[in-house]
Amino acid sequence: MANISDTIEKFIVSSLENNSSVDISRNSLAEYFSCAPSQINYVLDTRFTLDRGYIKESKRGGSGFIKIIKVQNTDTNAYLNNLITDSVGDEITEKRMGQILDKLLNDFVVTEKEKNIILMALSDDSLSMPFTIKDKVRAKSFKNVLTKLMNSSKSDE
Amino acid sequence: MANISDTIEKFIVSSLENNSSVDISRNSLAEYFSCAPSQINYVLDTRFTLDRGYIKESKRGGSGFIKIIKVQNTDTNAYLNNLITDSVGDEITEKRMGQILDKLLNDFVVTEKEKNIILMALSDDSLSMPFTIKDKVRAKSFKNVLTKLMNSSKSDE
DNA sequence: CTCCTTTTAGTCAAAGATGGTCAAATTACA
DNA sequence: TGTAATTTGACCATCTTTGACTAAAAGGAG
User: What is the pTM of this model?
Assistant: First the structure.
Protein backbone atom coordinates (compact mmCIF):
# COMPACT_ATOMS: atom_id res chain seq x y z
CA MET A 1 0.00 0.00 0.00
CA ALA A 2 2.60 2.49 -1.01
CA ASN A 3 0.56 4.61 -3.32
CA ILE A 4 -0.18 8.20 -2.46
CA SER A 5 -3.83 8.10 -3.50
CA ASP A 6 -4.63 5.50 -0.87
CA THR A 7 -2.76 7.49 1.73
CA ILE A 8 -4.67 10.65 0.89
CA GLU A 9 -7.91 8.71 0.93
CA LYS A 10 -7.15 7.42 4.43
CA PHE A 11 -6.29 10.91 5.58
CA ILE A 12 -9.61 12.30 4.40
CA VAL A 13 -11.59 9.37 5.71
CA SER A 14 -10.05 9.84 9.12
CA SER A 15 -10.88 13.54 8.98
CA LEU A 16 -14.46 12.50 8.47
CA GLU A 17 -14.47 10.05 11.33
CA ASN A 18 -15.93 12.48 13.81
CA ASN A 19 -17.48 14.98 11.45
CA SER A 20 -20.04 14.76 8.72
CA SER A 21 -18.07 17.09 6.49
CA VAL A 22 -14.59 18.44 6.06
CA ASP A 23 -13.16 21.40 4.21
CA ILE A 24 -9.84 21.03 2.49
CA SER A 25 -7.56 23.29 0.53
CA ARG A 26 -6.47 21.52 -2.61
CA ASN A 27 -3.09 23.20 -2.76
CA SER A 28 -2.24 22.79 0.91
CA LEU A 29 -3.16 19.14 0.86
CA ALA A 30 -1.12 18.58 -2.27
CA GLU A 31 1.84 20.27 -0.67
CA TYR A 32 1.39 18.28 2.53
CA PHE A 33 1.55 15.04 0.57
CA SER A 34 4.12 16.34 -1.91
CA CYS A 35 2.01 15.57 -4.91
CA ALA A 36 0.47 17.41 -7.82
CA PRO A 37 -2.68 19.36 -6.92
CA SER A 38 -4.58 17.47 -9.56
CA GLN A 39 -3.86 14.30 -7.67
CA ILE A 40 -6.27 15.53 -5.04
CA ASN A 41 -8.93 15.68 -7.72
CA TYR A 42 -8.05 12.19 -8.79
CA VAL A 43 -8.55 10.88 -5.27
CA LEU A 44 -11.82 12.73 -4.91
CA ASP A 45 -13.08 11.59 -8.28
CA THR A 46 -12.25 7.94 -7.76
CA ARG A 47 -12.90 7.49 -4.04
CA PHE A 48 -15.27 10.13 -2.77
CA THR A 49 -18.05 9.62 -5.24
CA LEU A 50 -21.80 9.87 -4.83
CA ASP A 51 -21.93 6.12 -5.32
CA ARG A 52 -19.92 5.71 -2.18
CA GLY A 53 -22.00 8.17 -0.24
CA TYR A 54 -20.04 11.36 -0.54
CA ILE A 55 -21.15 14.74 -1.79
CA LYS A 56 -18.72 17.46 -2.76
CA GLU A 57 -18.87 21.21 -3.09
CA SER A 58 -16.13 23.60 -4.04
CA LYS A 59 -15.30 27.18 -4.82
CA ARG A 60 -12.39 28.61 -6.79
CA GLY A 61 -10.58 31.88 -6.31
CA GLY A 62 -9.56 33.67 -3.15
CA SER A 63 -10.33 31.60 -0.07
CA GLY A 64 -11.58 28.79 -2.24
CA PHE A 65 -12.15 25.33 -0.78
CA ILE A 66 -13.30 21.81 -1.40
CA LYS A 67 -15.92 20.49 0.97
CA ILE A 68 -16.50 16.77 1.29
CA ILE A 69 -19.74 15.71 2.92
CA LYS A 70 -20.32 12.20 4.18
CA VAL A 71 -23.79 10.83 4.16
CA GLN A 72 -24.84 10.06 7.69
CA ASN A 73 -25.68 6.63 8.92
CA THR A 74 -29.25 7.09 10.06
CA ASP A 75 -32.21 4.75 9.81
CA THR A 76 -33.63 6.69 6.91
CA ASN A 77 -30.31 6.59 5.13
CA ALA A 78 -29.88 2.89 5.65
CA TYR A 79 -33.32 2.49 4.19
CA LEU A 80 -32.48 4.65 1.21
CA ASN A 81 -29.23 2.83 0.75
CA ASN A 82 -31.10 -0.42 0.61
CA LEU A 83 -33.38 0.94 -2.04
CA ILE A 84 -30.45 2.10 -4.10
CA THR A 85 -28.72 -1.23 -4.11
CA ASP A 86 -31.71 -3.57 -4.11
CA SER A 87 -34.52 -1.85 -5.93
CA VAL A 88 -33.05 0.51 -8.45
CA GLY A 89 -30.17 -1.33 -10.04
CA ASP A 90 -28.61 -0.29 -13.31
CA GLU A 91 -31.86 0.30 -15.10
CA ILE A 92 -35.31 1.31 -14.00
CA THR A 93 -38.59 2.01 -15.72
CA GLU A 94 -40.74 5.04 -15.06
CA LYS A 95 -43.41 2.83 -13.57
CA ARG A 96 -41.07 1.09 -11.15
CA MET A 97 -39.64 4.43 -10.08
CA GLY A 98 -43.18 5.61 -9.38
CA GLN A 99 -43.78 2.66 -7.09
CA ILE A 100 -40.64 3.37 -5.14
CA LEU A 101 -41.58 7.03 -4.83
CA ASP A 102 -44.98 6.07 -3.50
CA LYS A 103 -43.25 4.08 -0.83
CA LEU A 104 -41.01 7.00 -0.01
CA LEU A 105 -44.02 9.28 0.19
CA ASN A 106 -45.72 6.84 2.47
CA ASP A 107 -42.69 6.78 4.75
CA PHE A 108 -42.43 10.57 4.83
CA VAL A 109 -39.08 10.66 3.08
CA VAL A 110 -40.46 12.90 0.34
CA THR A 111 -43.48 15.16 0.09
CA GLU A 112 -46.11 14.86 -2.60
CA LYS A 113 -44.59 17.80 -4.41
CA GLU A 114 -41.09 16.34 -4.25
CA LYS A 115 -42.34 13.04 -5.56
CA ASN A 116 -43.99 14.78 -8.48
CA ILE A 117 -40.87 16.76 -9.27
CA ILE A 118 -38.74 13.63 -9.46
CA LEU A 119 -41.37 11.78 -11.43
CA MET A 120 -41.60 14.59 -13.94
CA ALA A 121 -37.88 15.25 -14.20
CA LEU A 122 -37.15 11.62 -14.96
CA SER A 123 -40.26 10.69 -16.89
CA ASP A 124 -40.12 8.97 -20.26
CA ASP A 125 -41.27 12.19 -21.85
CA SER A 126 -38.56 14.27 -20.20
CA LEU A 127 -35.75 11.88 -20.99
CA SER A 128 -36.05 12.20 -24.71
CA MET A 129 -33.50 9.67 -25.84
CA PRO A 130 -33.33 6.16 -27.26
CA PHE A 131 -34.97 3.49 -25.16
CA THR A 132 -31.73 1.59 -25.04
CA ILE A 133 -30.25 4.11 -22.65
CA LYS A 134 -33.30 5.77 -21.13
CA ASP A 135 -33.72 3.34 -18.25
CA LYS A 136 -30.01 3.43 -17.56
CA VAL A 137 -29.87 7.21 -17.37
CA ARG A 138 -32.95 7.22 -15.16
CA ALA A 139 -31.40 4.69 -12.79
CA LYS A 140 -28.18 6.64 -12.50
CA SER A 141 -29.97 9.92 -11.91
CA PHE A 142 -32.53 8.47 -9.53
CA LYS A 143 -29.80 6.90 -7.43
CA ASN A 144 -28.01 10.22 -7.29
CA VAL A 145 -31.21 11.88 -6.11
CA LEU A 146 -31.76 9.24 -3.45
CA THR A 147 -28.22 9.75 -2.22
CA LYS A 148 -28.80 13.46 -2.10
CA LEU A 149 -31.99 12.87 -0.12
CA MET A 150 -29.95 11.08 2.49
CA ASN A 151 -28.21 14.28 3.12
CA SER A 152 -30.85 16.85 2.52
CA SER A 153 -31.23 17.73 6.16
CA LYS A 154 -27.56 17.90 6.94
CA SER A 155 -25.63 19.62 4.19
CA ASP A 156 -27.72 22.68 3.63
CA GLU A 157 -25.81 25.42 5.30
CA MET B 1 -14.56 32.14 4.95
CA ALA B 2 -11.76 34.62 5.24
CA ASN B 3 -12.58 36.73 2.26
CA ILE B 4 -13.71 40.31 2.54
CA SER B 5 -16.51 40.04 0.02
CA ASP B 6 -18.34 37.43 2.09
CA THR B 7 -17.89 39.52 5.21
CA ILE B 8 -19.33 42.58 3.55
CA GLU B 9 -22.19 40.52 2.19
CA LYS B 10 -23.03 39.28 5.67
CA PHE B 11 -22.90 42.81 7.01
CA ILE B 12 -25.37 44.06 4.45
CA VAL B 13 -27.66 41.07 4.80
CA SER B 14 -27.83 41.62 8.52
CA SER B 15 -28.63 45.27 7.92
CA LEU B 16 -31.58 44.09 5.89
CA GLU B 17 -32.81 41.65 8.47
CA ASN B 18 -35.41 43.96 9.91
CA ASN B 19 -35.83 46.35 7.01
CA SER B 20 -36.77 45.99 3.40
CA SER B 21 -34.10 48.43 2.32
CA VAL B 22 -30.86 49.93 3.52
CA ASP B 23 -28.79 52.93 2.49
CA ILE B 24 -25.04 52.71 2.51
CA SER B 25 -22.19 55.03 1.72
CA ARG B 26 -19.76 53.32 -0.59
CA ASN B 27 -16.70 55.11 0.71
CA SER B 28 -17.52 54.77 4.38
CA LEU B 29 -18.21 51.09 4.02
CA ALA B 30 -14.97 50.59 2.10
CA GLU B 31 -13.07 52.39 4.81
CA TYR B 32 -14.82 50.41 7.52
CA PHE B 33 -13.73 47.16 5.89
CA SER B 34 -10.36 48.52 4.76
CA CYS B 35 -10.90 47.70 1.14
CA ALA B 36 -11.06 49.46 -2.19
CA PRO B 37 -14.36 51.28 -2.79
CA SER B 38 -14.85 49.33 -5.97
CA GLN B 39 -14.92 46.21 -3.88
CA ILE B 40 -18.27 47.36 -2.60
CA ASN B 41 -19.49 47.41 -6.19
CA TYR B 42 -18.10 43.95 -6.67
CA VAL B 43 -20.05 42.63 -3.71
CA LEU B 44 -23.20 44.37 -4.88
CA ASP B 45 -22.82 43.13 -8.43
CA THR B 46 -22.16 39.53 -7.50
CA ARG B 47 -24.38 39.06 -4.45
CA PHE B 48 -27.18 41.56 -4.45
CA THR B 49 -28.52 40.82 -7.89
CA LEU B 50 -32.08 40.77 -9.11
CA ASP B 51 -31.78 37.01 -9.40
CA ARG B 52 -31.29 36.88 -5.69
CA GLY B 53 -34.13 39.27 -5.03
CA TYR B 54 -32.46 42.64 -4.71
CA ILE B 55 -32.72 45.88 -6.61
CA LYS B 56 -30.44 48.86 -6.19
CA GLU B 57 -30.61 52.61 -6.54
CA SER B 58 -27.83 55.11 -6.14
CA LYS B 59 -26.84 58.71 -6.47
CA ARG B 60 -23.40 60.22 -6.96
CA GLY B 61 -22.01 63.51 -5.73
CA GLY B 62 -22.53 65.27 -2.43
CA SER B 63 -24.68 63.23 -0.07
CA GLY B 64 -24.68 60.40 -2.56
CA PHE B 65 -25.75 56.92 -1.49
CA ILE B 66 -26.42 53.37 -2.53
CA LYS B 67 -29.77 51.95 -1.60
CA ILE B 68 -30.32 48.21 -1.56
CA ILE B 69 -33.90 47.00 -1.64
CA LYS B 70 -35.08 43.47 -1.02
CA VAL B 71 -37.89 42.44 -3.34
CA GLN B 72 -39.93 39.37 -3.93
CA ASN B 73 -41.85 38.06 -6.87
CA THR B 74 -45.58 37.63 -6.55
CA ASP B 75 -47.26 36.34 -9.68
CA THR B 76 -45.87 32.84 -9.70
CA ASN B 77 -47.53 31.43 -12.78
CA ALA B 78 -46.81 34.31 -15.11
CA TYR B 79 -43.30 34.31 -13.78
CA LEU B 80 -42.77 30.60 -14.40
CA ASN B 81 -44.27 30.89 -17.83
CA ASN B 82 -41.81 33.60 -18.61
CA LEU B 83 -38.93 31.48 -17.42
CA ILE B 84 -40.04 28.56 -19.55
CA THR B 85 -40.26 30.53 -22.74
CA ASP B 86 -37.51 33.07 -22.25
CA SER B 87 -34.83 31.65 -19.99
CA VAL B 88 -34.65 27.95 -20.62
CA GLY B 89 -34.90 27.57 -24.37
CA ASP B 90 -33.95 24.39 -26.19
CA GLU B 91 -30.71 23.87 -24.31
CA ILE B 92 -29.52 24.76 -20.86
CA THR B 93 -26.34 24.21 -18.90
CA GLU B 94 -26.25 22.89 -15.37
CA LYS B 95 -24.90 26.21 -14.17
CA ARG B 96 -27.63 28.30 -15.74
CA MET B 97 -30.26 25.97 -14.36
CA GLY B 98 -28.73 26.50 -10.92
CA GLN B 99 -29.08 30.25 -11.28
CA ILE B 100 -32.71 29.94 -12.22
CA LEU B 101 -33.33 27.63 -9.29
CA ASP B 102 -31.71 30.14 -6.96
CA LYS B 103 -34.20 32.69 -8.16
CA LEU B 104 -37.08 30.27 -7.67
CA LEU B 105 -35.85 29.53 -4.17
CA ASN B 106 -35.65 33.22 -3.43
CA ASP B 107 -39.21 33.67 -4.57
CA PHE B 108 -40.46 30.73 -2.54
CA VAL B 109 -41.49 28.70 -5.58
CA VAL B 110 -39.28 25.83 -4.45
CA THR B 111 -37.71 24.86 -1.15
CA GLU B 112 -34.00 24.29 -0.67
CA LYS B 113 -34.61 20.55 -0.73
CA GLU B 114 -36.64 20.73 -3.93
CA LYS B 115 -33.97 22.83 -5.56
CA ASN B 116 -31.34 20.26 -4.63
CA ILE B 117 -33.43 17.43 -5.96
CA ILE B 118 -33.85 19.07 -9.35
CA LEU B 119 -30.22 20.09 -9.47
CA MET B 120 -29.12 16.55 -8.72
CA ALA B 121 -31.62 14.81 -10.98
CA LEU B 122 -30.53 16.89 -13.95
CA SER B 123 -26.85 17.36 -13.14
CA ASP B 124 -24.12 16.64 -15.65
CA ASP B 125 -23.17 13.64 -13.58
CA SER B 126 -26.68 12.22 -13.55
CA LEU B 127 -27.32 12.75 -17.24
CA SER B 128 -24.56 10.44 -18.34
CA MET B 129 -24.74 10.95 -22.07
CA PRO B 130 -22.87 12.78 -24.82
CA PHE B 131 -22.55 16.51 -24.36
CA THR B 132 -24.18 17.11 -27.68
CA ILE B 133 -27.56 16.12 -26.30
CA LYS B 134 -27.12 16.64 -22.57
CA ASP B 135 -28.16 20.29 -22.54
CA LYS B 136 -31.12 19.52 -24.76
CA VAL B 137 -32.43 16.75 -22.55
CA ARG B 138 -31.94 18.93 -19.50
CA ALA B 139 -33.89 21.79 -21.07
CA LYS B 140 -36.76 19.54 -22.03
CA SER B 141 -36.96 17.94 -18.60
CA PHE B 142 -36.48 21.18 -16.70
CA LYS B 143 -39.29 22.83 -18.63
CA ASN B 144 -41.52 19.89 -17.82
CA VAL B 145 -40.71 20.31 -14.15
CA LEU B 146 -41.38 24.04 -14.27
CA THR B 147 -44.70 23.41 -15.93
CA LYS B 148 -45.53 20.91 -13.25
CA LEU B 149 -44.62 23.45 -10.59
CA MET B 150 -46.98 25.89 -12.22
CA ASN B 151 -49.90 23.52 -12.07
CA SER B 152 -49.18 22.43 -8.54
CA SER B 153 -48.40 25.76 -6.96
CA LYS B 154 -52.04 26.20 -6.13
CA SER B 155 -53.16 22.72 -5.09
CA ASP B 156 -50.18 21.16 -3.35
CA GLU B 157 -49.52 21.68 0.35
C1' DC C 1 -26.81 81.85 -13.90
C1' DT C 2 -22.04 79.66 -15.19
C1' DC C 3 -18.02 77.63 -14.20
C1' DC C 4 -15.02 75.34 -11.14
C1' DT C 5 -14.21 72.34 -7.31
C1' DT C 6 -15.43 68.83 -4.33
C1' DT C 7 -17.66 64.77 -3.27
C1' DT C 8 -19.56 60.69 -4.34
C1' DA C 9 -20.43 56.46 -7.11
C1' DG C 10 -19.38 53.47 -11.62
C1' DT C 11 -16.51 50.85 -14.92
C1' DC C 12 -13.07 48.05 -16.33
C1' DA C 13 -9.04 45.58 -16.74
C1' DA C 14 -4.94 43.65 -14.53
C1' DA C 15 -3.10 40.82 -11.00
C1' DG C 16 -3.67 37.32 -7.58
C1' DA C 17 -5.63 33.09 -5.63
C1' DT C 18 -7.77 29.02 -5.96
C1' DG C 19 -9.76 24.81 -7.91
C1' DG C 20 -10.73 21.87 -12.61
C1' DT C 21 -9.65 19.17 -16.81
C1' DC C 22 -7.28 16.33 -19.71
C1' DA C 23 -4.04 13.45 -21.55
C1' DA C 24 0.67 11.75 -21.60
C1' DA C 25 3.85 9.13 -18.89
C1' DT C 26 4.52 5.82 -15.48
C1' DT C 27 3.53 2.07 -12.39
C1' DA C 28 0.90 -1.77 -10.51
C1' DC C 29 -1.47 -5.87 -11.24
C1' DA C 30 -3.94 -9.82 -13.20
C1' DT D 1 2.49 -8.75 -21.27
C1' DG D 2 -1.49 -6.15 -21.65
C1' DT D 3 -4.88 -3.51 -19.15
C1' DA D 4 -6.17 -0.64 -15.43
C1' DA D 5 -4.78 2.53 -11.92
C1' DT D 6 -1.87 6.23 -10.63
C1' DT D 7 1.03 10.29 -11.14
C1' DT D 8 2.25 14.60 -13.24
C1' DG D 9 2.15 18.81 -15.58
C1' DA D 10 0.46 22.08 -18.92
C1' DC D 11 -3.33 24.74 -19.62
C1' DC D 12 -8.14 26.34 -18.31
C1' DA D 13 -12.00 28.50 -15.47
C1' DT D 14 -13.62 31.11 -11.79
C1' DC D 15 -13.61 34.19 -7.90
C1' DT D 16 -11.46 38.07 -5.48
C1' DT D 17 -8.84 42.26 -4.82
C1' DT D 18 -6.97 46.59 -6.35
C1' DG D 19 -6.39 50.81 -8.67
C1' DA D 20 -6.58 54.00 -12.50
C1' DC D 21 -9.77 56.40 -14.91
C1' DT D 22 -14.68 58.03 -15.72
C1' DA D 23 -19.29 60.06 -14.58
C1' DA D 24 -22.55 62.54 -12.02
C1' DA D 25 -24.42 65.59 -8.42
C1' DA D 26 -23.96 69.45 -5.24
C1' DG D 27 -22.05 73.71 -3.62
C1' DG D 28 -19.78 77.89 -3.97
C1' DA D 29 -17.32 81.91 -6.28
C1' DG D 30 -17.88 85.35 -9.52
Answer: 0.88
